[in-house]
Amino acid sequence: SLAPGARSAHAQSDALRPPQPPSKQALRERMARARAEHLARQWRMAKAPTANQDAWDVTYYDIDITTDPSTAVVSGTVTMTARVRSTPVASADLDLLSNMTVSACTSGGTSATWSHAGDILTITLDRTYNAGELFTVSVTYSGTPDPAVDAFGFDTWGGAPMIWSLSEPYGARSWWPCKDVPSDKADSVDIHVTVPDTLIAACNGVLAGTTPAGPGWTTYSWHESHPITTYLVSVAAHPYAVTNDWYHYSPTDSMPLVFYNFPGHDATWLANNLKVKDMIAAFKPSFGEYPYVDEKYGHAEFLWGGGMEHQTLTSLGGSWEWVMAHELAHQWWGDMVTCRTFNHIWLNEGFAT
Q: Of the four listed, 118, 209, 237, 274, which is most buried by Cβ atoms within 10 Å?
């Protein structure tokens, strides 16, 4: 990533015309400062997995949330399936900041008791599970993600809501319950995001469909079929202008490139967006084929001053060609291959620089 830090003043306003771009060096310096500020805010949440979390591996998440810009509240149900590694387990610890309110939990499809203290949600399982067995829990919750964490936000652009996430390194737990460590990737994730029907919600993977969710609301359902870590799960919603291109990875097949831009920005971003297919082709001889070629790649514009390599859909705050190339490289280094802990984040950044 580059500069997932403080949003610039012009980005937070409703002005439609961005300022003149800074020099590359000035932009790099601004991004470095912003990234440091963002990481400093989230490093206070750094922790080792609990002993309970070490006893099981996540295989699947289903994230079904409503994001309401009128109240700045995220609400919904997250379901997790995990496999016990060795030691039998009778409970499951999930990371969820304590300002979020849990209203119900289940285990094995039946109601479960829970406790929520110190940003850890402990769910009592319906029975003891032994090595190799799968267990499933669900959490129904709601709340306003802590603005001090700055990992999920409700902003505006052009008078319209702009909903965004940026969870690196430890921000996922501020808006959805999960095992929030980079080393435990779910094998797949389904993301259902319900938003006002004036918005388009863009997430990881492939769009499985859209469904009406009551008057004035639409649910966007996305499926990520590849392993993904929690900090790369993303949501971006706005009345986007959507443009498309194709990466032809063989003489007979191609992958969609999808670009979500603020209305009026799609034309100014077009020239560099059209270079993305050539960037992928340029990286292929050194890195191998784009790792999610059966899904998509693209950009979702948001209000940060740099970019974040969300899996299959980078979030970008500007149309800088060199930032686009850097974030694309992270799809191999950071997304497909992920540092075990954030003490080794230089591996993600070094190979993508």
A: 237
> What is the token pair recorded at 74?
């995220």
Residue range 153-190, pLDDT digits in tens = 999 999 999 999 999 999 999 999 999 999 999 999 99
Helix ranges (H only) for 229-320 are: 266-273, 276-287
Q: Do domains 56-228 and 241-352 have the same CATH topology?
A: no
CATH value of 241-352 in 3.30.70.2190, 1.10.1040.10, 1.10.390.10, 1.20.1250.20 = 1.10.390.10
Q: Which residues contact 340 (CB under 8 A, 6 or more apart)?
A: 182, 183
CA atoms within 13 A of residue 245's CA, in its CB half-sphere: 20
CA dihedral 197, 199, 203, 205 (to 10 degrees): 60
Residue 124 neighbours by CB distance under 10 Å: 14
Global confidence as pTM = 0.92
Which two structure tokens, joined as six digits, stand for 19?
């300022």
Provide the edge-to-edge strand list for the sheet that holds 314-316: 241-250, 253-261, 297-301, 314-316, 307-308
Phi, psi of 320 (to 5 degrees): -75, 125
Q: What is the third-level CATH fold of 56-228? A: Immunoglobulin-like (2.60.40)
Residue 199 has which token pair? 């918005």
Instruction: Measure the CA–CA gap between 132 and 56, rounded to whole angstroms.
Output: 9
